[in-house]
Amino acid sequence: MNSLAPAVLSVHDLTRTYDTAAGGLTVLRGVNLDVRPGEIVGLIGPSGSGKSSLLHAAGLLEHPTSGEVRIDGEAVGGLPERARTHIRLARIGFVYQFHHLLPEFDARDNVALPLRIAGHALGAARARAEELLVALGLADRLTHQPSQLSGGERQRVAVARALANRPRLLLADEPTGNLDPATSQTVFEALHDLAKKSGVAALIATHNMELAGHMDRVFALKDGHLEERPAESQAY
Ligand SMILES: Nc1ncnc2c1ncn2[C@@H]1O[C@H](COP(=O)(O)OP(=O)(O)OP(=O)(O)O)[C@@H](O)[C@H]1O
């Protein structure tokens, strides 16, 4: 981690209130957070505490109710939707609990897809996809379709896809939540290793305290606020 580098993700005094039939439901009540290049930050908290709400605001998928999100120092809240979409595609990678891979594409072409959308030629996109899949231990699974992969392999493909565009920011919402403990560990180690090598700033929501222990900093969402947890960081 480069603690002097400016934050890639900067969240300032963020609030989020949902309109529900029963009235306003406030889940984030003034959240502040900076994530710097090369840093892996964990986000923990019970179900319903607002982890996904924070990731959705940070990933420009939703607007917060108030407060500010900055990506590489740029305030993104007031930008037109087209500019927000461009930032999302070019600078942010997402990993979800479920892989969301396209079933008719093989592993390599799933990873190449964001590069194709960004305008890269097929050959270059596939070469980058292969490089990532090899780094994630999937050299002999390049042409397997998602249905021909194990759950852990699919998540590793999803990690490769998220990093394909060399994003500045990686957001992961329980990336191992659907896997058994041993597979979780393997997928997380692969993600951790690649995130560190690429220098991406990563914010990872997890229920898995064992994995959280390997992150650089860990914050718990409690009553709508972030509380930093004492570092027990164990490096891989
Ligand atoms: N679109 C919405 N409309 C109304 N309420 C919502 C909406 N989205 C989320 N919520 C509520 O906001 C709260 C926080 O949800 P969120 O998904 O951010 O929590 P979480 O910490 O990610 O939970 P989990 O660990 O179960 O994924 C929950 O109580 C949820 O029901």
UniProtKB/TrEMBL annotation:
<dbReference type="InterPro" id="IPR003593">
    <property type="entry name" value="AAA+_ATPase"/>
</dbReference>
<keyword id="KW-0472">Membrane</keyword>
<dbReference type="Pfam" id="PF00005">
    <property type="entry name" value="ABC_tran"/>
</dbReference>
<dbReference type="GO" id="GO:0016887">
    <property type="term" value="F:ATP hydrolysis activity"/>
</dbReference>
<dbReference type="InterPro" id="IPR003439">
    <property type="entry name" value="ABC_transporter-like_ATP-bd"/>
</dbReference>
<dbReference type="GO" id="GO:0005886">
    <property type="term" value="C:plasma membrane"/>
</dbReference>
<keyword id="KW-0449">Lipoprotein</keyword>
<comment type="similarity">
    <text>Belongs to the ABC transporter superfamily. Macrolide exporter (TC 3.A.1.122) family.</text>
</comment>
<keyword id="KW-0997">Cell inner membrane</keyword>
<protein>
    <submittedName>
        <fullName>Lipoprotein-releasing system ATP-binding protein</fullName>
        <ecNumber>3.6.3.-</ecNumber>
    </submittedName>
</protein>
<dbReference type="InterPro" id="IPR017871">
    <property type="entry name" value="ABC_transporter-like_CS"/>
</dbReference>
<dbReference type="InterPro" id="IPR027417">
    <property type="entry name" value="P-loop_NTPase"/>
</dbReference>
<keyword id="KW-0067">ATP-binding</keyword>
<dbReference type="InterPro" id="IPR017911">
    <property type="entry name" value="MacB-like_ATP-bd"/>
</dbReference>
<keyword id="KW-0813">Transport</keyword>
<dbReference type="GO" id="GO:0098796">
    <property type="term" value="C:membrane protein complex"/>
</dbReference>
<dbReference type="GO" id="GO:0044874">
    <property type="term" value="P:lipoprotein localization to outer membrane"/>
</dbReference>
<dbReference type="InterPro" id="IPR015854">
    <property type="entry name" value="ABC_transpr_LolD-like"/>
</dbReference>
<dbReference type="GO" id="GO:0022857">
    <property type="term" value="F:transmembrane transporter activity"/>
</dbReference>
<dbReference type="GO" id="GO:0089705">
    <property type="term" value="P:protein localization to outer membrane"/>
</dbReference>
<keyword id="KW-1003">Cell membrane</keyword>
<dbReference type="GO" id="GO:0005524">
    <property type="term" value="F:ATP binding"/>
</dbReference>
<feature type="domain" description="ABC transporter">
    <location>
        <begin position="9"/>
        <end position="236"/>
    </location>
</feature>
<keyword id="KW-0378">Hydrolase</keyword>
<keyword id="KW-0547">Nucleotide-binding</keyword>
